[in-house]
Amino acid sequence: xxxxxxxxxxxxxxxxxxxxxxxxxxxxxLSIIVSKSPCQYAGVYTKNLVKAAPVIWNMxxxxxxxxxxxxxxxxxxxxxxxxxxxxxxxxNMAIQFSDGLNxxxxxxxxxxxxxxxxxxxxxxxxxKMNVISEGINTIVKTxxxxxxxxxDAAEGIMTTDKFTKVKALKIKIKDxxxxxxxxxxxxxxxxxxxxxxxxxxxxxxxxxxELLTEILKESVNDTYNMISVDGDTSTNDMxxxxxxxxxxxxxxxxxxxEYYVFKEAINKLNEELGKLIVKDGEGATxxxxxxxNEMNNVEEAKKMVHAVITSNLVKTAFFGEDANWGRILCAxxxxxxxxxxxxxxxxxxxxxxxxxxxxxxxPVKFDEDYALEILKQEEIKVIVNCNHGNSSAKGWxxxxxxxxxxxxxDYRT
Amino acid sequence: xxxxxxxxxxxxxxxxxxxxxxxxxxxxxLSIIVSKSPCQYAGVYTKNLVKAAPVIWNMxxxxxxxxxxxxxxxxxxxxxxxxxxxxxxxxNMAIQFSDGLNxxxxxxxxxxxxxxxxxxxxxxxxxKMNVISEGINTIVKTxxxxxxxxxDAAEGIMTTDKFTKVKALKIKIKDxxxxxxxxxxxxxxxxxxxxxxxxxxxxxxxxxxELLTEILKESVNDTYNMISVDGDTSTNDMxxxxxxxxxxxxxxxxxxxEYYVFKEAINKLNEELGKLIVKDGEGATxxxxxxxNEMNNVEEAKKMVHAVITSNLVKTAFFGEDANWGRILCAxxxxxxxxxxxxxxxxxxxxxxxxxxxxxxxPVKFDEDYALEILKQEEIKVIVNCNHGNSSAKGWxxxxxxxxxxxxxDYRT
Lengths: 413, 413
Description:
The structure is a homodimer. By secondary structure, the first copy, chain A, is an alpha+beta fold. Chain A is about 35% helix and about 30% strand. The first copy, chain A, folds into two domains: about 1-275, L-amino peptidase D-ALA esterase/amidase, CATH 3.60.70; about 285-410, Ubiquitin-like (UB roll) (Roll). In chain A, strands 1, 2, 3, 4, 5, 6, 7, 8 and 10 form a nine-stranded mixed sheet that branches. The N and C termini of chain A lie far apart (about 45 Å). In chain A, about 60% of the residues are buried.
């Protein structure tokens, strides 16, 4: 397994592009991913009852087992809470995108049902369909497999993100090289209840949609569902995997050796993309990893991780570089998990060292200056030992700063 | 039913006091409530698995049906997450308080089990028992039924609160006047999962501990459990009611006419105290009432209210005076309640007027200037009609400002 410095268009047979079409004032706001051959498709979508139009469209494609040739994504407007018009706009995006692809003369006629749509940005405002239509006509002609096109695509899906989020991995499936590449966007309305953002993964692996879906669902539970920026589950969250088989590798069959290699790679990729989303969390100045160890089962340990990474009081304490471990214990206490507070250890770890704050439920007298040194780092680990079993869970969050309030106090206007 | 401008010591037979003893630098930090005759006692406590020492002490008193003569409360330190020493300190507070009361020559010998203890403030740090012990010796001698002593007691329980929270009601139980008085403190770590703060209620009504407990539990569900400042459920939350029967009224029996009068009064008092806590929420600049109407059942409607009042994105939008109704619909969507988004209406109401933003799931074109006028007010109502039944629920929250981050970024140090 090897990390590559490549984009979403690096697996064989994939192209991408990203342009500015006019939804946003200046920054890129339209991206596409296309495959020359039909893709097996897996998707996991927001559990929010209020689903954006493109989420509904893509779920329909999944239910009907449609083969997929590409995804068109606009940023700047989520096309969520936009009523019937929103759904029509989404269908029109699919029509225009598939029409555009057909002009490029693929082997097959691509129907609107063979493409996916994603939107991200402000909710409750109709799409500017005129600029998007024109944009789609332009962008289909610019798709390429160049490094620049990969980067352009990653830029086109950003909203309040400060940096692009791209990761790619090379694995061996028997004798063949297989690439798995991903790109994501955050960075507010991020909360673990499924994907909680946009994430696109392409691969030239040969795998069925059913197995891909199974692997994706498992992976999402341990990766994207274990991150939180602000506790709000979006209307638009999705993780999409497209596999076109162009690597020429053998088909990946469940429980085979290749299956485990592929699954681990998907997991690694999702974990790294998830961490990038948190690192770029709105207003975030610190990246917090929370590990709960020695619990009696994983689900309980996950509840505890969630409570800590979503606690506003914990998050503001990290922003203030205050070793306020009591707020961590408090959050563990209301997590709903069943553990014995009198057996818990809490430790902070960073590049500056580590410090034990709670030892078997008893507060430890600690050196405040040393604690501050540890908390001054940008990446901090919180390690909780429950002395209550052998299961553990990990999750990732960020601190809560003035800037989060600033960004979200006037995001729409 | 008549509101009185009186304190916690206004029901017959109650006295109170509040002083500065030295836990905090300057502000009052120690309060007591005492009754000349034994009280029936009801209490509802935090559901956080991590319970502060005084919570454990008071729950033991409840389980053992102890009669209660008073409560001693310190602020500035929550005596939570303080290990075994914390519990011993709490028991010592009870011993010193009961000893002090005995010196005042009551008719009965008051044992430590006849008093309650409460603490609020920073967690994880041992109590300064020397200053608290001295303080208790002093304060027991100063308790009185004067207006000033009532106010002093309300001041002594404050932490980051900016104003005292006191309410009193007069009702008639048959021919007798009965007073119910309450005082509370907020103002961070406030989240609906039981009492979520300290609240003390005294009454000279004649009522059994069992019935008082039943009434209190029901009331807490509709009042304190429907407020949120920051989504964090504290380790120290408690609502305590003490009833000493000194009004000379007949005993309040379940389902009698008097029962309903008394119950309604307790509810009103709790609702008003809950609202005061939210209005004084850490960093709050706006008070938000959320009403969900026309749902198919109350529990579902409550879930929806909770999701809206706890959403950081909704809260920052109110801080920014941005009519971002999409975030409200998004929060309703992930609340877990089952409703039809395409039938929902959303309306904002304030002293400046009202504005419909979503009509049967369809966005309404609205005048942004008029919306801003409505949002400029300090008190705003969000009204959600689900067109999905006849049940409704109400809850109260506040906005999320820079100051919340500031206050909690350096609360401990």
